[in-house]
Automatic annotation (TrEMBL):
This is Cytidylate kinase. ATP binds at G8, P9, A10, G11, A12, G13, K14, S15, T16. It is an enzyme of class 2 (transferase). One of its GO terms (molecular function) is CMP kinase activity. Belongs to the cytidylate kinase family. Type 1 subfamily. Pfam families: Cytidylate_kin. Residues 4-213 form the Cytidylate kinase domain. Its EC number is 2.7.4.25. PANTHER family: CYTIDYLATE KINASE (PTHR21299:SF2), CYTIDYLATE KINASE/PANTOATE-BETA-ALANINE LIGASE (PTHR21299). It comes from the Bacteria. The lineage of its organism: Bacteria, Bacillati, Bacillota, Clostridia, Eubacteriales. It is found in: Cytoplasm. GO terms for biological process: nucleobase-containing small molecule interconversion; pyrimidine nucleotide metabolic process.
Amino acid sequence: MISVAIDGPAGAGKSTVAKLLAKRLDFMYINTGAMYRVVTLKALENNIEPDDVQKLCELIDSMDMYFDGNDLIVNGVNTSDKIYSPLISQNVSRYAAISEVRQKLVKVQKYISEKFNVVMDGRDIGTVVLKNAPFKFFLIASPEERARRRYNELVKKNIEVDYDSLLKKIIERDYMDSHREIAPLKKADDAIEIDSTNLSIEQVVLIMEEYITKN
Ligand code: DC
């Protein structure tokens, strides 16, 4: 099986690019952020705090997860419309920092990559989950550009937001994701770094696609 790993900070465009790349390569797209988000959603629904590791593990064991295109289906229910709410975004880092949660989700991610050709995006894909992936990319963009993209996205949805507070949140999330003890966000030594600050989605996908087909 062939795996493509894409890591990088929040808002760098990983999921948009990974989705398109998977389509072009006819690979399965695995959005690992969605998996951490869905655990957060279910934990909040069941009032399970991040430090209640036993309950969290039981919860994850009771979840049957699979990807249907870009959607994550859990116990037969499509979770896509629930997992991107501000409440989940605000809480997900706390649950993603728990080692037992990561171990369980990483196991599922590895299992899928053994069965299918995948484009998998996240924070620790090239460094932990798919250490031996033949293709690894680390996608970055300046915090200002990432805040600007998020701002435009929300304005399009008629959601009122303040650019400065978005920028502040992005910088805070970068700090949390890259300074946590377990599997912090870090470029794998053998990953190719792509700075998308001044590139379109199409340009980024093309760089990746060309690299993969040539190697
Ligand atoms: O990519 P995203 O914003 O949907 O990810 C949600 C959160 O999950 C983010 O705060 C970091 C965490 N995450 C992680 O720790 N490891 C991954 N492989 C993917 C996401």
